[in-house]
């Protein structure tokens, strides 16, 4: 079976979905169900998973028994903050090791600060975490993160929350061709065709939040993203026909025509 394999575990869905920006936890649950996602990301600094006693908890709507949680460090601007946040997540989730690391460079673009990201990744890997890392689409950086021991690299398609889609497919292609760990597009997906393109390029999966949560109908968009990821993966496995410039080729046979 064609599964996504991360840190020794297999998943049927190649769509990873965030849990922020929805109107309430009920809508979050409905969208996650429609997406078919098995891995869900949680911004520890913004979502209650037990650290705020007496408040509604995401755990009540999306039980860890049903989903693989992927705590992330959204809102962190230094390696120290990121490490501290994920250690807290590990305590809250009973020793959970799979995490998403992102260390941002500035609040306007939310572009990753790769120096701080690498520093945090080194600490977390030594501390026993399985690190999926949000990064720039620099092939050299992506390879360094792999060689350090990251469980997956997740280059941005375009800026977080921009919905601009894949702006540099060529860099993504280089990263994919040279990687021995999963490569997932993270950030910038705006609609279903963006997700399909990422999968057609050979990405192992796509991670998104705003593209679903900010849609006019998040639940319907979640279903569309599920189909797009599946279709893109199948197209990649099938192998597209070669591109031909000015080389017409009839779609039906030319032999045996009535003369």
Automatic annotation (TrEMBL):
Which molecular-function annotations from GO does this UniProt entry contain? thiazole synthase activity
Q: Which GO terms describe its biological process?
A: thiamine diphosphate biosynthetic process
Q: Where in the cell is it found?
A: Cytoplasm
The Thiazole synthase ThiG domain extends over 6-253
Q: Under which EC number(s) is this enzyme classified?
A: 2.8.1.10
Q: Which residues are annotated as active site? A: 100 (schiff-base intermediate with dxp)
Enzyme class at the top of the EC tree: transferase
Give the record's subunit note: Homotetramer. Forms heterodimers with either ThiH or ThiS.
Give the function comment from the record: Catalyzes the rearrangement of 1-deoxy-D-xylulose 5-phosphate (DXP) to produce the thiazole phosphate moiety of thiamine. Sulfur is provided by the thiocarboxylate moiety of the carrier protein ThiS. In vitro, sulfur can be provided by H(2)S.
Entry protein name: Thiazole synthase
Recorded source organism is: Methylobacillus rhizosphaerae
